[in-house]
Write a sequence for this structure.
């Protein structure tokens, strides 16, 4: 009976072609429904894909701990301090408001098992390393040992900082191989022990190179800027950097990486409770707030899924309306073709072959509507993701789901009319005017 | 009951709206035997029950009472699916209004009964072309019905009726909508089918002259056979 199926498809296409306008109007509900499904799934997949990959490069288990202003009651919008807007406003912070080394040390010893590392950094600034005519653009960042370890750099020559480098705030630096290529003609071992001059904001800084690491372009940066112009990072011991910037206060923020198996969203609460109960209880203006990649991600996905739900409801309704539209047009078409059905029966069509003919026709309408909907949905998603600044990823699951769903709608809403056609009494059908 | 005739009707009664207030008895006990290879015409006034009888012969409808044995098969005992199969294989219908499927070509129309019979595409096409050639319509086979004249449509319909090589042709006023000249060519085709291929033909007609050309004339009046004349 397979060839009968194929003949039915051709027959259905012929029939639909002879009434294009009506067919398109019939399909409208299906088109809108499927387009909505595809658009939201594609946008969702694209956001997830982009966010997840950038999450991975940043580290999903990182928690940013920062000093933030206490929100006054009437200003408070969300109950948790852990939201997108919780950046510290340290414009009027006094020395007492900062996070001190002692607090961090205390915190570290209290939660040793939950913490993989505490990353502290101090940016000295961006400028150029110079040696006669040769120059290379750099950014100087002071880092603690956990921070440097977490960067997972490959050492090409020399070494990283020792504890004594850190404790004594030595003016030693760990530089990129790219910088050595430019400044020392790629002689990595010869560069060790050399002194480089770095010019930042009208001032020269002098540092001794103790190690060279393999420079890797970070994918997110590489995608956005011209890679040849990128500055390389020159790492300096944390307190050496703080001396350069004359930072006498504590830190306004730091990053905690949780150990594996620790729920970082839960740990955020622990951190806030620890700092706020122990150190900020009497501080009327400032408190500690946290934000984790995971919580940002979950509120983002929550937002996406809320929108998805709303669109899914719209899609569901239009698919239902579309399905009923298909059923209606099938009933009309069967009435119009009553004599044809009678003739077919006279020529030997069985009830089931009549039923198949009309179900196939209904499926064909729905699949064509579905395909138009898929194309339209991808188009809408491409525009939406472009506006949001993500890369489009057509949702394969969405496409498979849509086609399957179209077939399902075709069968579901086509069955009743088709069955009605199949059960027509042949003589009544032939007498029909 | 043993019978050797192709069509054996015994005391056929047909009622519409049975057990309802507007119950209507159209055929009041028709008995008729038609042998293989016969060319029989049925005549009678409009509304006398000719088409109703033809629908029963063509097993598009079941009699309310009576026995119908078609080529040895008792129709009363057959299931719907078997009836479809018998219609497809043993019977070729020709209607007054042609009843071609308008969205598709003459060729596809002729292929239709073979499609339901499960004949493969290639053979379907060959046989359809053969029968279209026989009725002189091969050169117009890619045309759709609305591009053909009445006589041409009826010739396509005859080719369609022949496509599964049925032994019986049932024609209900096939020339009723045609002028006499075109009707003549259609009649000639029936004679040829009867004479050369031995098809059993039952023809309903209004035309006395055309009825006179057939082997037997059965006259129906108010649902009863009132005369039978063998030529
Ligand atoms: N399916 C039906 N339902 C009700 N009445 C019918 C039906 N078929 C035929 N009739 C009636 O039966 C009578 C005979 O009809 P028909 O067999 O078509 O006559 P003929 O073909 O001789 O002109 C008519 O009065 C017609 O209205
Ligand atoms: Mg009639």
């Amino acid at each position: 009976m397979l060839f009968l199926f194929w003949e039915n498809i051709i027959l259905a296409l012929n029939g639909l072609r002879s009434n294009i306008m009506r067919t398109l109007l019939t399909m409208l509900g299906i088109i809108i429904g499927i387009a909505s499904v595809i658009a939201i799934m594609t946008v969702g997949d694209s956001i997830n894909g982009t966010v997840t990959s950038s999450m991975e490069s940043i580290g999903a288990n990182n928690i940013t701990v920062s000093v933030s202003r206490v929100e006054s009651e009437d200003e408070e919008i969300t109950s948790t301090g852990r939201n997108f807007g919780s950046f510290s406003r340290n414009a009027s912070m006094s020395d007492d408001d900062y996070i001190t080394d002692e607090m961090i040390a205390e915190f570290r010893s209290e939660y040793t098992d939950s913490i993989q590392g505490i990353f502290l950094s101090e940016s000295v600034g961006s400028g150029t390393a110079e040696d006669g005519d040769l120059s290379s653009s750099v950014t100087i960042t002071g880092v603690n040992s956990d921070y440097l370890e977490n960067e997972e750099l490959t050492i090409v020559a020399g070494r990283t900082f020792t504890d004594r480098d850190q404790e004594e705030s030595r003016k030693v630096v760990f530089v990129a191989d790219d910088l050595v290529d430019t400044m020392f003609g790629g002689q990595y071992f010869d560069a060790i022990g050399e002194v480089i001059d770095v010019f930042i904001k009208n001032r020269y800084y002098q540092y001794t190179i103790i190690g060279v690491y393999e420079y890797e372009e970070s994918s997110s940066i590489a995608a956005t800027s011209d890679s040849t112009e990128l500055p390389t990072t020159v790492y300096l011991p944390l307190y050496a950097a703080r001396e350069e910037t004359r930072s006498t206060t504590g830190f306004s923020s730091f990053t905690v990486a949780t150990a594996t198996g620790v729920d970082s969203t839960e740990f955020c609460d622990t951190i806030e409770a620890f700092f706020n109960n122990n150190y900020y209880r009497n501080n009327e203006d400032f408190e500690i707030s946290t934000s984790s990649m995971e919580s940002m991600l979950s509120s983002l996905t929550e937002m996406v899924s809320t929108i998805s739900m709303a669109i899914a409801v719209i899609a569901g309704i239009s698919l239902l309306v579309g399905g009923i539209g298909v059923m209606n047009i099938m009933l009309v078409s069967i009435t119009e073709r009553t004599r044809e059905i009678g003739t077919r029966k006279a020529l030997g069509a069985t009830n089931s072959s009549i039923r198949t003919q009309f179900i196939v026709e209904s499926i064909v309408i729905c699949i064509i509507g579905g395909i138009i909907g898929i194309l339209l949905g991808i188009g809408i998603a491409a525009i939406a993701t472009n506006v949001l600044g993500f890369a489009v990823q057509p949702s394969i699951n969405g496409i498979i789901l849509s086609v399957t769903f179209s077939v399902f709608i075709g069968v579901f809403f086509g069955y009743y009319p088709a069955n009605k056609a199949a059960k027509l009494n042949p003589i009544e059908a032939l007498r029909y005017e | 009951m043993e019978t050797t005739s192709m069509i054996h009707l015994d005391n056929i009664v047909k009622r519409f709206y049975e057990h309802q207030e507007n119950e209507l008895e159209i055929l009041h006990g028709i008995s008729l035997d038609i042998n293989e290879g016969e060319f029989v015409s049925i005549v009678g006034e409009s509304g006398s029950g000719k088409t109703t009888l033809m629908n029963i012969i063509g097993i598009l409808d079941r009699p309310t009472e009576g026995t119908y044995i078609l080529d040895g098969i008792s129709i009363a005992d057959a299931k719907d699916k078997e009836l479809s199969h018998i219609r497809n294989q043993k019977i070729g219908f020709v209607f007054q209004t042609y009843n071609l499927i308008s969205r598709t070509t003459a060729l596809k129309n002729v292929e239709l009964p073979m499609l339901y019979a499960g004949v493969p595409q290639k053979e379907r096409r060959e046989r359809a072309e053969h029968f279209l050639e026989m009725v002189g319509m091969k050169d117009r086979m890619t045309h759709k019905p609305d591009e053909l004249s009445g006589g041409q449509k009826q010739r396509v319909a005859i080719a369609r009726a022949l496509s599964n090589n049925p032994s019986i042709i049932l024609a209900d006023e096939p020339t009723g909508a045609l002028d006499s000249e075109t009707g003549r060519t259609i009649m000639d085709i029936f004679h040829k089918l009867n004479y050369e291929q031995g098809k059993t033909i039952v023809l309903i007609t209004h035309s006395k002259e055309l009825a006179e050309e057939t082997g037997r004339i059965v006259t129906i009046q108010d649902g009863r056979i009132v005369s039978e004349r063998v030529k």
Residues 74-90, 219-227 of chain A have pLDDT under 50 and may be disordered. Residues B 50-51, 172 surround magnesium ion (ligand 2) (CB under 6 Å).
